Amino acid sequence: MYRKITALLLILPLLLTGCWDRQELNDQAIVLGWGMDLEKEGVYLATANLVLPLASKSGGQQGGEQGGRSGFMTESAYGKNNRDAEQNMQRKLSRVIFPGHRRNIFIGEKLAEHGVFSILDEYGRSPMVRPRTNIFVVKEGTAQDAMSLAYQLETNPAIAVQKIQEKSGAPISRSLLDFFIMANGTGCGIMPALKIVPPEVKMDKKSKNDSPPQTTLSLYGAAIFNSRLKLAGYLNHNEYWVRLWITDQLTGWNFTTIVNAIDADQPGGAAADALSGATSSQAVTVNVDTFKSQITPVFDGELPRFRIRLQGKGYIEENDSPLNLSKTENIEKVEARMNVYLEERVREVVKKVQKDFKSDIFGLGDMLHQFHPYRWKKLAADWETVFPDIELDIKVKLNLTGTGVTGESLLPDSEGGDK
Amino acid sequence: MKISNRQLFWMILMMEIGMNLLISMTATIHNAKQDAWISYIMAGAAGLIITYTAARLSSRYPHQTLIQYSTAILGKWGGKLIIIPFILQWFWVMSLILRDEYLFIRLSVLYKTPDWVVIGTMIGVVLYTVYHGGIEAIGRVSELWGPIVIVILALTLGLTFNNLNWTMVLPVYADTGLMTIVEGALAPLSLLGEAVLLMMLFPFVEHPGQETRKALLLGVGFSSFLLLLGVLWVIMTFGPAVGSRLQFPFFEMVKLVYLMEFIQNMDVFVMAIWLVCIFVKLSIYMFITCYGLAQWIGKARSWKKITWVAAPATFILTMLVIKLNPPAGLLLKGVWVRYVMPVNMVAIPLFLLAVSFIRHGRRPGS
Description:
With 419 residues, chain A is of the alpha/beta class. Chain A is built from 15 helices and 15 strands. In chain A, helix 9 crosses helix 12 (328-357) and helix 13 (364-371) packs across helix 14 (373-379).
């Protein structure tokens, strides 16, 4: 027995001498964001957002700056693709690049226009990274611009955009995976788009401790890619919900429309009348939290038509119009008004997508494929050319279930209304 | 050395699930696309038939292993000869499992650790278990870990539920057709069919009989069901196009778990249970290889000595496989599906059963 144990103890050190995959935390440069820009054909500029170890340690001061130092650093390098640039970047870094937390990828606009086919492969291939990754296109800018910008509320701008995306009503941290899945479907893709926005009104600091709004990163909407994975165009934030609603992915949205005096004056009048005489600052906001979309293809002509029925449930959050919301018929008026407004909006966006982008981002082709596979076999080959001319019959129906804690506004109705 | 029926059930379950979850899905989804789940149903049904045939055969000689009753059926030389494909298969399987384990571990955790360390430690543990505990220890390990495996699998399926998009399994049948679906069923079937090794385990069960057959069929049936759920989940998460291109789609799916910020990185758990499954499978194979070889050369009592030959042999074979690096598709499709499955899992058991009926009638005197 003892002989066995001694033998074992003698053999063990032989086995334990090497620890090949040991990687001390102090020797790692943790990458939180990765950006790619097209420099010229075949040359890319990679930017990495790295966690600054000292900055994240001291917890006393929250915010982008700590004792005058920013809480993150960016490093960049040229390369022929992602890995080549990473290797070039490594030569500037004292720690090994560790991409295990690389949850955000930024694509410069120029690269997006050139096409992302040439660089996306690594994001799905590398075993080090997680498949839950956000990918963003930086509108009117480069990835480096966006990544270098300090963000006040979070120590790291990469974390900031990730959190902004999570609050946008779209699925969380799935944009890369969804892009891969979509590009394999009817052959187009969508990525969320970011934009660097200056403050609406520029203001100077009057004293040292002032904190006026600064230039910052904002979620612009979505970038649409065509079947060759080149940027076809953008949908802004106020257009993108249309796509989310139609594909049944929207989780919450506020809709604001103008309800004018005509609505109040002519009870039972057609809601369309209100459209014409819209006056300003008499807006009603509806918060919708339950969405449903029902798409039925109709095959009666050469091309299929689609009947799109969008439904939503919500309540009135703000009412600046003279309508008295304690009366049911007035709520119905808001509903009718909203339906007209939303239908108009949806039609506009759908038309833009069909005519300008010519990309089936609503997944109509996928839907045909899934539910009418034999008809799809005839259509599949030239769906891309046919899609812009597909007829869509869109109806929106909101169901308002509440008016908040008041019915009638707490304000006296001396102003605003004619009553 | 006796195991209970329940231990046998868990052994079969763990043996079937581990490898199948990891390596068969890509091939199946590649062939059968979104209809891969039909392939898995077919594979499960066929796996049950194979298991039933083998169990039927073993029940006729409940106190003998395959090695013993093959000589009883075919005579001394015929019986010995027909075992050769099995012995080859056992060594082959062990080295393939070890290679896949190494590849998977290198890909997901240990990037730089040399191959012999990963394989050597696994073989070391397997050798220890088989040498000291034999089949009894393997049975107990399975009984202990089996429920944990089920719980963790159920948990992962539950936690990834919110990623599912059921329309991805559509259209059913329209894109594929019968032949491609059957072709897709071959890969999972060839792994489910490994349950024929029950022919070596049968006599070790405490009271071999009807209950044993039930445990075996339940084991295969239940693992097919879990695999069916697994492949449905994968298709509904990734869709057929991405699913068929990922090397380990189930594992990638687990990586997607992201709930309430703090529930994530579930893949470590799945990796852990997967390693336990691999360990159980390797131990079973190691045991039957050693015991079978010992019986084959007629020295059943000294089977433990054979472990000292079989384990190094497996190690060398595995290193050879790694060094030569034959393409995985060739190994699974070209050799395993084309030769091992039809010969070892279907033809030989059926042939033995038929001859046994002809020579010994309904009730063979054991």
